[in-house]
């Protein structure tokens, strides 16, 4: 609600007469505001106190959910740079990359597909244009069987590349 209403934590804290850290603790579900503050929040956000209390209950519930496990390990600069480069090539964060490749998993990165990617984007633009023309009534009943077959062949070839 705070973000939707365009308030920074500091601004909301000033309006409520509380410390900025209190706002963060409420949002994280660490604490809940007192009744008078709930009343002020309902006036600021122009919603009922019940909605504020429900939002606070949701924050408390989320704070009780288990957090994912974190594993830290040391590695050489060379290994770190390899992991970092591979994650970048796979367009993943390092943690996601390590998680996916651990225990025999693999991430297949295919380089040199810039032209292919460009062509797929062009096909998408053409489909959008075709949809617009159909919606305006400029054309009717386009035959997309050839396009569908071409795209299926592309995806079959991609799957074969990824499987290799």
Helices, by number, come to 8
The value of Rg in angstroms is 26 Å
How would you sum up the major sheet?
none
* Quaternary state of the chains: single chain
Helix/strand-derived category reads mainly alpha
- Residue fraction in strands: under 5%
String of helices and strands = HHHHHHHH
Overall 3D shape: flat
Kindly state the mean pLDDT as a whole number? 81
Low-confidence stretches: none
Separation, N- and C-terminal Cα atoms: 49 Å
Q: What percentage of residues falls in helices of 4 or more residues?
A: 55-70%
Number of strands: 0
Describe the structure in your own words.
With about 160 residues, the chain is mainly alpha-helical. Helix content is about 65%, strand content about 0%. The chain contains eight helices and no strands. α3 crosses α4. The longest helix is centred in the C-terminal third of the chain and has 23 residues. The radius of gyration is 26 Å and the shape is flat.
Concise structural overview:
The protein is mostly helical and 164 residues long. It is built from eight helices and no strands.
Provide key terms for this protein.
164 residues, 65% helix, mainly alpha, flat
What's the structural blueprint in terms of helices and strands?
Blueprint: H1 9-16, H2 20-27, H3 35-45, H4 49-64, H5 77-89, H6 94-101, H7 114-136, H8 145-163
């Amino acid at each position: 609600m705070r973000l939707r209403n365009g308030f920074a934590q500091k601004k909301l804290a000033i309006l409520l007469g509380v410390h900025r850290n209190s706002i963060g603790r409420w949002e994280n579900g660490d604490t809940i505001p007192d009744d008078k503050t709930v009343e002020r929040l309902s006036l600021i956000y122009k919603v009922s106190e019940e909605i504020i209390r429900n939002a606070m209950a949701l924050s408390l519930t989320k704070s009780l959910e288990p957090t994912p496990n974190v594993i830290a390990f040391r590695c050489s600069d060379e290994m770190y740079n390899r992991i970092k480069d591979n994650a970048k090539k796979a367009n993943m964060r390092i943690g996601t990359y390590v998680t996916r490749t651990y225990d025999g998993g693999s991430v297949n990165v295919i380089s040199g597909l810039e032209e292919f990617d460009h062509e797929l984007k062009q096909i998408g633009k053409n489909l959008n244009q075709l949809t617009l023309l159909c919606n305006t009534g400029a054309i009717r009943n386009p035959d997309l069987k050839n396009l569908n077959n071409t795209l299926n062949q592309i995806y079959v070839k991609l799957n074969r590349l990824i499987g290799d």
